[in-house]
Amino acid sequence: MSPLLHPDRLFPADPSARAVARRLYGEVEALPIVSPHGHTDPRWYARNAPFPDPAKLFVVPDHYVFRMLYSQGIPLEKLGVPRSDGGETEQDGRAIWRLFAANYHLFRGTPTRLWLDHAFATLFGLGERLCAENADVTYDLIAGKLEQDAFRPRALFERFNIEVIATTESPLDDLAAHAEIRDSGWSGRVVTAYRPDPVVDPEFEGFSANLARFGELTGEDTFSWSGYLEAHRRRRAFFKTYGATSTDHGHPTAATFDLPREEAQALFRRVTGNAPVSAGDAELFRGQMLTEMARMSLEDGLVMQIHPGAVRNHNGQVFARYGRDKGADIPSPTEYVRALKPLLDRFGNAPELTLILFTLDETTYARELAPLAGHYPALRLGPAWWFHDSPEGMKRFRAMTTETAGFYNTVGFNDDTRAFPSIPARHDVARRIDCGFLAELVTEHRLDEDEAVEVARDLAYGLAKKAYRL
Amino acid sequence: MSPLLHPDRLFPADPSARAVARRLYGEVEALPIVSPHGHTDPRWYARNAPFPDPAKLFVVPDHYVFRMLYSQGIPLEKLGVPRSDGGETEQDGRAIWRLFAANYHLFRGTPTRLWLDHAFATLFGLGERLCAENADVTYDLIAGKLEQDAFRPRALFERFNIEVIATTESPLDDLAAHAEIRDSGWSGRVVTAYRPDPVVDPEFEGFSANLARFGELTGEDTFSWSGYLEAHRRRRAFFKTYGATSTDHGHPTAATFDLPREEAQALFRRVTGNAPVSAGDAELFRGQMLTEMARMSLEDGLVMQIHPGAVRNHNGQVFARYGRDKGADIPSPTEYVRALKPLLDRFGNAPELTLILFTLDETTYARELAPLAGHYPALRLGPAWWFHDSPEGMKRFRAMTTETAGFYNTVGFNDDTRAFPSIPARHDVARRIDCGFLAELVTEHRLDEDEAVEVARDLAYGLAKKAYRL
Amino acid sequence: MSPLLHPDRLFPADPSARAVARRLYGEVEALPIVSPHGHTDPRWYARNAPFPDPAKLFVVPDHYVFRMLYSQGIPLEKLGVPRSDGGETEQDGRAIWRLFAANYHLFRGTPTRLWLDHAFATLFGLGERLCAENADVTYDLIAGKLEQDAFRPRALFERFNIEVIATTESPLDDLAAHAEIRDSGWSGRVVTAYRPDPVVDPEFEGFSANLARFGELTGEDTFSWSGYLEAHRRRRAFFKTYGATSTDHGHPTAATFDLPREEAQALFRRVTGNAPVSAGDAELFRGQMLTEMARMSLEDGLVMQIHPGAVRNHNGQVFARYGRDKGADIPSPTEYVRALKPLLDRFGNAPELTLILFTLDETTYARELAPLAGHYPALRLGPAWWFHDSPEGMKRFRAMTTETAGFYNTVGFNDDTRAFPSIPARHDVARRIDCGFLAELVTEHRLDEDEAVEVARDLAYGLAKKAYRL
Known about the structure:
Largest interface: A-B, 47 and 47 residues
Catalytic activity (chains A, B, C): aldehydo-D-galacturonate = keto-D-tagaturonate; D-glucuronate = D-fructuronate
InterPro entries (chains A, B, C): Metal_Hydrolase, Uronate_isomerase
Family (chains A, B, C): Belongs to the metallo-dependent hydrolases superfamily. Uronate isomerase family.
Order of helices and strands of chain A: HEHHHHHHHEHEHHHEHHEEHEHEHEHHH
Distance between the termini of chain A: 33 Å
Keywords (chains A, B, C): Isomerase
Number of domains of chain A: 2
Oligomer: homotrimer
Largest sheet of chain A: 4 strands, parallel
Strand order of the largest sheet of chain A: 4-5-8-9
Number of helices of chain A: 20
Number of strands of chain A: 9
CATH topology of the largest domain in chain A: TIM Barrel
Protein name (chains A, B, C): Uronate isomerase
Shape of chain A: globular
Structural class of chain A: mainly alpha
Helix content of chain A: 40-55%
C-alpha cells in the first residue's frame, strides 16, 4: 500500500466507529463499479488508443485542477488550456506538469487531491506526494506507463472493475462510437444517455440549426409541435438501442410547466419563430419540455435526471478567450417546491416514473428535496453533485436527507466525470464516506450492524442498478 | 433492557464525551414530561377508551409512517388511509401491519424508527426488530396488550410521567372534551391552546361560515372589526379557563403588519366582504392579526407561537383523494428579518410578551433567528420542528443557535405530535441529544460540567415550564 | 494555568485528533498577532491612558455582551448604555458589574464567554468563573490592575504580541491619532484602513455634508463626478502615508455595477442633487463605487474588503433611544453570484487585485463564495464574520469552503473588534479551531501532518500578511 493511500483514510477518527467502518467497507470495497451518469468519451473505449502524456491526462482537461491553479493567478495558457482564437498555449507536457507539481499544495483539503493521489498510487505506484522536486521523476514514470497496453482505456476499464458505464450524448450525436464499441466484440458494457438540451433549450447555441439537424436525423418535421415531439420519441428509441436507460436535463432552474396543448403549441411556435426568444419563453419552454419528457418516460421507461442551478460561463473574459467548461460555472440558489409542482401534479404519483433530482444548493437537502422525495413515488434524490461530490459534501448530503427521505429514496453514487482515471477514486471516496456515516449510526445505536451492511451494499451497488434500471 | 434500546443510544461515540453524556442524562432521564405544544386528542383522556389495533395506532394515523411507505410506491389504500370519497381501503389491521413490517427497512436512519422501536420496546416488550417474519407475532402481542386497562390513555399518561400536556383547539371548539376531563376528577393535567387559524386566515376552508359561528359562540358581531377583535378576547379568556397558556399560529409565512386602525378596518371589510379575497389581502390580514394577537397577549398573558413556512397540500391528487395532512406538506424558504419587523417595532421590546418562533428553514437558525432572539426581549426560539425534530435536526439547531442566542433564549422541547405512544420516545431523544451536545462542550472545555447539569435540566424541564408559563 | 483555561480547550474530543491538534497548536501558539481588520480606537495607542473601570471596559461598550443581557429583559440603562437624549443611565461601574456577574450563565455556550474567560484569566489572573458571589472581588481585582502601567494600551499591545494592527477610519477623519502615534516614537505598528461608506452611501446620515467636507479636505470639487473620484484618489494616498493597505465597504448587499461613464456621471448628479435619492439609485451608486474602488485599487495597490448583508438598526425603538450599534443589526440573505458579476467582468481576472469577501449568510459559503474564490484570481474569502466568528461558525466556514476554494484562497483571521482585551482570545480561538480542523484531516488521512503544520502557520500568520500586504 502506497503511503499516499492509508487504508483507514476518510473513516471516522473515533476508534469504535472506525472499526465498524472498516468492517462495512470490507463488504463493499470489491463490488463492481456501476457508473450510471458520467461524461467519459465513448471513443476511448471504441478506439482503445493510449492516453497522451501525464499533463494532457491529468491537468489540461480537468476543470477542477486548472480552476484552482487559475484562481491563484496562473494563466490558463501556461496550463495548456486551448484558446478559442487558436492563440499560443503551452504545448510541452513536462512544463505544464512542473507548474502543476510546484503548486500541488493548493489542493490540500480538496477532493481533487484525494482523486489524484488515488490514481497516482494505484495506477502508477507513486510512493510520495507530488511536489516540485519530484515533478520530472513522476512525469517520466507516468508517461512510461501510459505507453503500455495495460494502460489503454479498455484495460483500465477492466482493471477498474466497471460493470457498466453510461456516457452522455446529444440527440444530434450519431452514436458512431457506441456502434464501434458494439461491433468490436469487446465485452465492456458502455451505454449512452439522452441529453436533449441542445434541442430543448431555446437559449442553447445554434438552437434553430440544431432543430433542423434533429429533423434530418429523425425524418420528422421538427418545426411543428407534434413532429418535434415525435422526433424525441424516435431518437429516444434509437438511444435505447445503444443501451440508454436514462435522460438528463441540465437547466438553469428546476422550473416545470404543464400547459394545455394549444398553449404549448403556441409557445413552440414562438421559440422556433424568427423573433428573438424572450427569457420568459425560454424558461417556459424548458419547463414544459420536462413535463413532456416525463410523459415519454412513462411510455418508454427511460429514467429522468434533472441537474439544475448552475450559472454557466460566469466569467465573461474567460468564456470569450477559452470557451465553455473552464471552471467558471457557479451554483446559485435553486427552488424546487413550487418549481416542480406542475410536473408532479401531473406525474408525481406514478411509481413507474423515476425522476432523479440533483442540486448545487445544499440548503434544499433538508428543506425541500428530502421532504419531496420522502413523499412522491416518482422522485428519487441523486447523490451530492459537482462541488459537493467531496467528503464533507457527501456527509452533509446524508446528514441532511436521510432522516426525512431515508436511504431508499436515494440512488447510490454517480461519478459524473470525464476524468477517466479518477473513476475508481471517486467511487472509493463515496463508499468510504457512506460506510463512515453508517458506522456512526451503528456506534450511536441508531442502526444495527447487520442492517448497515445491507445498506452499505445498496448504496455502493444495488440502488444505482435499480434506480437506473441497469 | 430490550436489545432495541441500547442504554447509550444517541450519545457521542467518543468515550470521554459519552461518559459525560451518560452522567448528564442520568440527571434528566426521570424528570417529568412537560409537553407545552402538541396535537393529541383530548377525547382520549376524557373517555379513556382503549386504543384500537396496532395498525390503527401506529400506521394509519401517522403521516411520518405512511408518507415514507407511499414514497416507495405503496398505495395509501393498502395502508388503510381513508379516502375522501369513502372508497374502499384496507380495513384489516393485520394486513396493514404485515405490509408495514415487511417494509420496516425503509425507516433505517429516520427518527420514526427510533420512536417506534422505543414504543415497541418500552410499552410492549418487543425484543427484536420488526420484520416480515415477526409481523404476526408482534401484531398479536401489541393487540393483546392494547386490550388491557394498563394501556388505556390515562394509564399511559401516568406511566409516561406527564406533568402537563397541551392540546390544540380552534376558537370554534366548545372544549367539551376538556370539560369532561375536568369534571371527571382525574388528576392528569391537560390544557388547551388557542389556534385561531380558521377565523384568522381568509384562505382557510369555510372562513366566512367560521366567522359566523365565532359570532354565535361569543355573542359578538364578528363581521365588524371591533366585534371581531372582542370575540377573540372573549374566546381567549374562555380558553384560559381550560388552562390555556398559549396561542399558536400556522401561517404560510412569518409576515406581520401593523396597520393604522382605519386601514386595518378597511382590510377587515375587504376580507369579510362578498368579493373574492386577493392573495395579498389574505397575507396582509394574517400578518395584521399576528400583531393584534401580540397586543392581546400583552393584556391576557398568553404566550404566542408562530409556525410558518409550510406549503400545505402540495400534492394535488393526494389532496383530492385523501384530504389534508397526508404527508404532502413541504417546507419552503422562510424570511423573518423583514417579516417580523412591524410586530417587533410595536411590541418586540416588551419583556412581558413571549413570542416563540419556529422554522422549517434551517438556513434561518444562525442567520436570522438566533440574532433576533439574542436581542429582542420578547423573542424566544422554539425547538427543531417537524422534519427537523430528529437527532441530526436537533444537533443542527443547537450548533447553529447557541453561540448567538445562548440556551436561555430557547424554550426546551415540544413533541408536537398526535402519536401518543411516541411522546416518551420523542422527549427521550431530545434529552439524549441535548445531553450529548452539552457533553461535547464539556469535553472540549467550553463549559464546566456543573453548568452543563443545570443547562440539561433546564432544557429538559425548566425552560418549557417557564417559557410557556405552565 | 487558570482553571478557566484548560490547555486542551476547543480541540477535538477524539484522543488521536486531539494529540495532533496539540502538536499543530504548539507550532502556532506563539506566533505574533497580525490584525488586518478591526475597530480599536487609535487614541488608545496615541494617548496610552489607563482603561476605565471593569464595567466600562467589558460591559458598556460591548454589544455582544449587552445584547444578550437585553434579550433577557434587562434594560440597557441598567447596563450603563448611554441614551441619545442624555437621559439617566447607571453610572456606577460596580452596580453594572454585579448585574453582569449575576447573569453570566446567559453566556454559556457563546464565544463571548470564551473571550471573557480568556481575558479574565490571562490578564487578571481570575481563577474561578464569574458569578454573583464573586462579583465584588473580581471587580476590585480588575479595577486595581487597570490602574497599573502594565495595563495601559501600549503595554497590553506589546504583551499581546501584536505585530501590526489596523484600525478603520472614514475619509473624513484627519488621522490625528495616527499622527500622534507616529510622532510619539513608540514602536507599535498601528495602521489605518480606508472606509469610505460616509461619502459613498447616499443613504448614510449627512451624506451631502460629508461630501462637502470631503471637498474641503482634498481641495477637489466633490460635487462633480471627476472631482469626487479624484478626492478618493487623494484621500487613499493620504491614508497610505499612515500605513493603510486596505479599504473596507459595509454595504447592505454585494451588488456591483459597471456603468458607462455618462451613466455614472448622471447617476452621481442624481444622488448629489436636491431631490430625494431613490432606494434604487442609492443601491446603484454604492454598487458603481465598488467597481470604481476596484479600479483605484489596481492603481494604488490597496486591498478591497466587502462586508455586506447586515440589516442595520432593525429595532426602531432601540435606535431612537440609544442610537447605532446597539446589538440590533441582523443578518439577511445575501446573493453574490449575480451581484458581483459586473465588477468581476471588469476586474475579476486581474491577479494584482485582491478583493476579500465576507458574509453573514453561511448558505453562500459552499454554494457561491467558495466556487467564486476557487476560480477568480482577484477573489479571496475573508474569515467567518461577526455572529459566525465563533468555534462552530469557524468550523462551518472551513468545512464548507475548503473543498472547493482550498486554504490558499482564504486570508487568515480577522478579529474585527473594538474590544481590545478580547484580541488575544479571538486569535487564540481561531488558531485552536483551525488546528482542530487540520488535525481531523490528518487523523482521517486526508492531509499529512507536515503539510498541516505549514497550513496552520499560514492560517495563523502568513496568509493575513500576504493577502493584506502587511
